[in-house]
Write a structure and sequence with these properties.
Chain lengths: ~260, ~325
Amino acid sequence: MDIVVALKQVPDLVEELEINDEGTGLDPDVLSFVLNEFDDHALEEALLLKEETGATVTVIGVDTTGELDQALYTALAKGADRAIKIVGDFEEGERLPIPVMARLLAGALQQMTYDLVFTGVQAADDLDGQVAPMLAALLNVPHVGVVTSVARVNGVVKVQKEFWGGITADLEVDLPAVLGIQAARQAPRYAPVSRVRQAMKEATIEEIEVEDLPEAPVAPLRRMFIPEVSGRAEILEGDEATIAEKIVDILRERGLIT
Amino acid sequence: MSTYFVIAEHLQGVLTETTFEALGAARNLADATGGQVVGVVLGHEVSELAAQMAAADKVLVVDHPSLAHYSPEGYVKALEPLLQEHRPRLAIFQNTAIGMDLAPYLAARLDWPLVAYCNALRAENGAIVTTSQIYGGKVMAECRLDDGPAMVTVLAGAFPADDGRAGNSPSVEQVTPSTLNGLHTRFLQLNEPETGDVDITKADVIVAVGRGIQSEDNIEVAEELAQALGGVVAASRPVVDAGWLPRTRQVGKSGQKVKPKLYLALGISGAPEHVEGMKDAELIIAVNTDPNAPIFDVAHYGVVADLFDIVDALLETLEK
C-alpha cells in the first residue's frame, strides 16, 4: 500500500501577525513558518499504518515558503520513505490559494501510484476551502474528512470520522481515497535533531518544477485586517498576587466560592 | 432572481442549529437583494425536516436509501447535479464536519469559487461581500463574490438562527437523485460519545487548559486548581489530540458545548473552533501571555500573564 502525505507550512500563530502594506495578506518579512499541525497528525497516522501494514509513505508539498525542506527532512527522519517538493515561481512566504495548491498537488499525484492520500483536515490559512476534498474531487476519488483513525481491512480502509458533541461514525472506503486527518491515533512523534541531520545528509528531496500556475476559481480578496480587540475583557492588572486576589474577589461576589 | 441555497445538516433525525443560522443568513441576503431561499435536505424519509426549514421559500428533498446515513461521497454525488442545474447565486454550507467535506469537493468539481470560515455576509452593489475568520481567529479576510454561482461555508454561531426559524411553511419538492449506485464509501455505524469519568457539560466550574499548559505533567496543576474551585478540568483540542486528556474533556466544535457558571481559560488562544463551545459560559476569565489572543474578545476578565504564575497565586490565595 502506498500512502502519500501532503504537507504544508503555515504561519506560526504564536508569533504576532502583521498585515502587509497592501492590506492583502500577512507581511512575510515578520512571519515564521511551522508545519500545519493537522498535517503532522496526517503524517503520524500514515507512519502508524506503515508500521502496521508495511505501507510506503511519501511526503509531498508545494514549497511556497522556501523552507519546506525542513518539514520534508523531518518527515524522512520520522520514517517517511520518499520526499517530493513542487517548486515554481511562487512569491516566497505568500499564501497560495488552496484551489491552486490542490491543482498542483493533483497534477503531481496523477503521475504517481497511490492508494491513500492523507493531509490535515484544515489549515490556519485555508480561506478558500480545505485541500483534501478539493484534491479528491480533482483526482475523482472518494474523500472523508475529520478522520481520527484509519485501519486497513481486507483491501479497503475503515475510518472513524468525527462529527460534533463527541459523535463519530465508522465508514468503509475503497481505495484509492483521500482522507482529511483531524488527529492521529497517537500524538505525532518527535524526530531527534540528530536523525533530521542524518536525513539532510543522506536523503534527497525530489523536485517537480512547475512552469505556470494552474487556473483555478478564487474569490478576489479585498483586504485582510487584524480585528480590533473588541475590548470585551476587562484586563486585570498588577502582580500575580494582586491579580489572584482580584479573581478570588470576583468569584466571591458571584457566590462561586465561599 | 438570485437564489440562495442552504444545504441542511442533520444527524439522528435532528437539524443542526447551524442549519438555522445558515438559513437566517440566506434569508437576510435574499431580502436585501429580492432573491429566494432554497433549502436542500438529503437523506431518507426526511420530509419532516424539510418542513422545519421555515425561512426557506422552497425546500428540495433528495430522498434515497443510500442517503439514510451521511457519507461525504453520497452527499456530493447527490448535490453536484442539483447545483449544476440550479446554479445558485450562492450556495451556503456550514463550516462543520459535514460542510467541510462537501463544499470544497463540490467547488473543485464545479469550478466555482468558495470562501470558507465566513462570519458575515452582506450584499453590496450586486456583489456579496464575505468576511472570514482565519489564522486561528487572529485575522479577518474580506472577499468579494461579484457574481454567481459561488459557495461559502459559515461559522457556527455567527448568524441569527431565529431568522432561519421564522417564516411560513415552505413548499417542499421531491427530487429524484441521480445514480447513487456503486458508491465507494459505506456507512458502518454511528458511535455515541464515550461516557467518561466526568461530564463536563454538567459542571458549574470548568478550568480549561490549552496549548499553553505545555506538557502532560502540567495537567496536575490545573487539576489542583479545579479541585480548589470545586470544578473539573477540560481542554481545547490540541491538548486532547496530544493525548494529555481524554476526548470526553474536549470543549469546542468537535467536542462538547458547555455553559458553566465559571469558565477559567488557561493558555487557550481562543480559535473560533474553541470559542464555539464555551462562549455562552456565564463568566469567562482568560489567562494568556499573548495580549492579542482572540480569547480576550469573548472573556469577561482577562489576565495577560504566564498561566503557571497565576495558578500558583490563585492556589495560595484560595488557601488563605
